[in-house]
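Here is the promised in-class demo. Please do not try to memorize the tokens; focus on the logic of going from shape to residues.
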């Protein structure tokens, strides 16, 4: 159930609770894109994997998001943004536990792929939900807050990871998403608004979605493969070189 204000958007205080709901989900999804960077040496050592292999803990998550973001956004137009967001929270929380309990790097990488799908569902409908939550005259403010949260979460990822690792195992980098996901799901069920769905005749094109996912995955993978050679060409002092990244 949603209450509308006279000038559009949600009425206060439901508007504030809805903003908090999408903010928490977005922060979780963005943080998990970089939070594992600090723990890669520990993960590599504990799971008996090489440094090159352990990098896929990061790559798998990011590639899954890039490959499925547009398709899930279109799915939100058909079945509703609220449903896609809630489904994303469920997938994200469950796969976070899967990642935390993974006994090997292949299973952890698989968990990160699935977690990336949940993160993509959260991110794909975030801006669309903002359009429904805010009145038109405040839409710019909502998008600005959204962009600010993404920037802060991206920058804060390594710091948050270091704080958690100072007193807990790397597995808590993922386990912490479970209570946050449960709370956010409860808020989403209670406060997020529905959106008008498209006509029943419009269907989700699975073949097209899979084709786009393949193309985006290949492009992202090739781009990541090209980075080491580009860094070598630039020399050890360049910002893209492995020496600089360390």
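The designed amino acids, position by position:
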């Amino acid at each position: 159930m949603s209450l509308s204000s006279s000038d559009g958007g949600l009425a206060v205080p439901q508007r504030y609770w809805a903003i908090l709901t999408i903010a928490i989900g977005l922060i979780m999804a963005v943080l998990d894109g970089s939070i594992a960077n600090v723990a890669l040496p520990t993960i590599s050592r504990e799971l008996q994997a090489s440094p090159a292999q352990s990098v896929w803990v990061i790559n798998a998550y990011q590639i899954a998001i890039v490959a499925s973001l547009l398709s899930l956004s279109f799915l939100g137009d058909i079945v509703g943004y609220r449903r896609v967001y809630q489904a994303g929270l469920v997938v994200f929380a469950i796969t976070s536990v899967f990642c935390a309990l993974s006994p090997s790097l292949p299973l952890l990488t698989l968990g990160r792929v699935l977690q990336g799908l949940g993160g993509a569902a959260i991110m794909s409908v975030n801006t669309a939900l903002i359009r429904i939550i805010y009145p038109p005259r405040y839409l710019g403010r909502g998008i600005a807050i959204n962009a600010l949260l993404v920037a802060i979460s991206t920058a804060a990822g390594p710091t948050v990871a270091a704080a958690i690792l100072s007193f807990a195992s790397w597995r808590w980098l993922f386990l912490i998403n479970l209570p946050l996901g449960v709370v956010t799901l409860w808020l989403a069920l209670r406060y997020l608004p529905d959106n008008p769905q498209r006509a029943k005749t419009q269907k989700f094109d699975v073949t097209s979605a899979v084709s786009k996912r393949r193309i985006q995955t290949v492009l992202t993978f090739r781009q990541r493969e090209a980075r080491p050679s580009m860094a070598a060409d630039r020399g050890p002092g360049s910002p893209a070189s492995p020496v600089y990244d360390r």
